[in-house]
Design goal:
This protein is an alpha/beta fold. The protein has one domain (5-283): 3-Layer(aba) Sandwich (Rossmann fold), CATH 3.40.50.1820. It has helices spanning 5-13, 57-63, 89-102, 115-126, 147-158, 166-173, 184-193, 198-208, 237-246, 262-265, 267-283, and strands spanning 21-27, 30-37, 41-46, 67-72, 109-113, 133-137, 224-229, 251-255. The chain has an eight-stranded mixed beta sheet, sandwiched between helices. β1 (21-27) and β2 form a beta hairpin. α1 crosses α7 (184-193), α2 (57-63) crosses α11 and α3 packs across α4. The protein starts with a helix and ends with a helix.
Length: 286
């Protein structure tokens, strides 16, 4: 089911980043969009596999009451064809580190969701001096290849699909933790995800297949919060709890009733948890 034009417009504008500032930076020779909203101690939001920074807009709006919130486009978001694509998650983590340096941020908090959580984790173990705090949702230290993910990757690689393809839309619906009730939120997620080129989605799924930081988690020495949706069907909460247990001093919190997009459906609780972590991090002894 598609949103009426007016309601689509309302949900698009509800990304809230239109209230802030947009500019561009060069990362690995490619121009990417950077969006900022709010003032205060900085927090960088790293978007997931599809949907880009727009999918994080409502959460950004809540966090912007107390923070300068920054998000950006991953390589491939704007110009998927004919551009150099990252060979692994390490390169995307280097992009994130370069962005932090380019913006002159001194040990900002970094919040990564799903694929963006893997990028944030890679930065935290390879360049721990870059971060002041770490928040993760929908991520594990080594992604396990599933039949569903393999099929989705092969379909995305080989078959040009219309933006209302039922097969892929069912995959997007899994992000909610089960079949969701039809409505504007569901359509918003699907439409934002389809703004990412399907070849880029497939390539990012492939990058996750070689991602593994499980033997380097001990290097993370900043306040860390791991949030997991209790109904996350993509990365089950038991795996995310294990991630938190492997990071020294990390806190684990379950988002009751949330799926993989808990940062959107449970954004008020997520924002509250993040603020609490950052307040405690600010007042903790060095």
């Amino acid at each position: 089911m598609r949103l009426a034009t007016r309601r689509r417009g309302e949900w698009l504008m509800s990304s809230y980043f239109h209230e802030g500032r947009q500019h561009q930076v060069q990362l690995a020779g490619q121009c990417v969009e950077v969006t900022e909203i709010g003032r205060g101690e900085p927090i960088v939001l790293v978007p997931g596999l599809a949907g880009g920074w727009k999918l994080l807009g409502q959460l950004a709006h809540l966090l912007a009451h107390d923070h300068r919130v920054i998000s950006y486009g991953l390589r491939g978001d704007r110009f998927p064809a004919g551009t150099a694509r990252p060979r692994d998650l390490c390169e995307l983590a280097q992009d994130l580190g370069a962005l932090i340096e380019e913006l002159g941020l001194e040990r900002p908090a970094v919040f990564g969701v799903s694929f963006g959580g893997a990028i944030a984790l890679e930065l935290a173990v390879s360049q721990p001096q870059r971060l002041g705090a770490l928040v993760l949702q929908g991520v594990e230290p080594r992604f396990r290849t599933t039949i569903g993910a393999t099929i989705a990757r092969r379909v995305l690689e080989r078959f040009p699909l219309p933006s209302d393809n039922r097969f892929v839309n069912q995959f997007f619906n899994l992000l909610h933790g089960g079949k969701p009730e039809p409505g504007p939120l569901v359509d918003f997620v699907v439409e934002r995800c389809w703004e990412t080129d399907q070849s880029v989605m497939a390539q990012r799924i492939a990058l996750l297949e070689t991602f593994d930081v499980s033997d380097r988690l001990w290097r993370i020495d900043v306040p860390t919060l791991v949030l997991a949706g209790s109904r996350d069907a993509i990365v089950p909460p038991v795996r995310q709890r294990a991630l938190a247990a492997a990071i020294p001093g990390a806190d684990f919190r379950l988002l009751d009733g949330a799926g993989h997009v808990g940062f959107l459906t449970h954004r008020n609780e997520v924002a509250r948890r993040v603020r609490k972590l950052l307040r405690s991090a600010k007042h903790s002894p060095c």
